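Issue: ligand-bound run for magnesium ion - logging full I/O for the record.

Environment: standard queue, default settings, no custom constraints.

Inputs:
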Amino acid sequence: MGSLISKVKICLSAWYPVRARVLLLGLDHSGKTTTLYQLKLKEKVATISTVGFNVETLDPINGVSFTVWDVSLNAETWPFYKHYFANTQGMMFVVDCKDGERHRDAKQLLHMVLGETDMEGVPFIILANKQDLQNTKQPSDLAMELEPDKWTGNAWEIFGCSAISGDGLQEALSTLSVMIKKRGITMS
Ligand SMILES: Nc1nc2c(ncn2[C@@H]2O[C@H](COP(=O)(O)OP(=O)(O)OP(=O)(O)O)[C@@H](O)[C@H]2O)c(=O)[nH]1
Ligand SMILES: [Mg+2]
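Outputs:
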């Protein structure tokens, strides 16, 4: 009976309008703001390092509206931004694949974020960014390094992308929409 109800919910979900609060996180210089405005404006924008946050609304697929928070988060600003995690339905975590020396720091940040109570069960995608550059780390290698699968309660996916060209971003966002919808169905 339970599975029948959830099947019906999945069918109906195509028509559910979904609004979600999505965090866009990652180390500084990873490409968060470039990603946000590539998704919003479909073009490359010139960025300067974000102080505080940027927030935009995105409509990735029919019937889904995301409020995306691009938050400049690091060890010093961490205590000030913890309240941004409340009521989060999804996360995009951006990694500069060219900057291998900082992948350990990226992993640390990812695991700190996922350790927050408000992030329990929240689906996320990792954007293996800057794939347009030569000799960048491949998404599968990055996944092995970041070990996101330690968080068995959070659905996740990884995508190679370039925030400069936009390659890979739409697919990633559409997948996150589906993940958020699915979680909404299983929770309600
Ligand atoms: N080649 C290449 N450069 C990128 C890409 N995405 C971002 N950049 C560049 O990386 C630099 C940092 O990008 P931002 O979007 O400002 O990075 P951020 O994560 O918002 O940085 P903070 O605001 O400091 O946290 C800029 O010079 C971007 O043009 C990409 O996919 N490919
Ligand atoms: Mg920024």
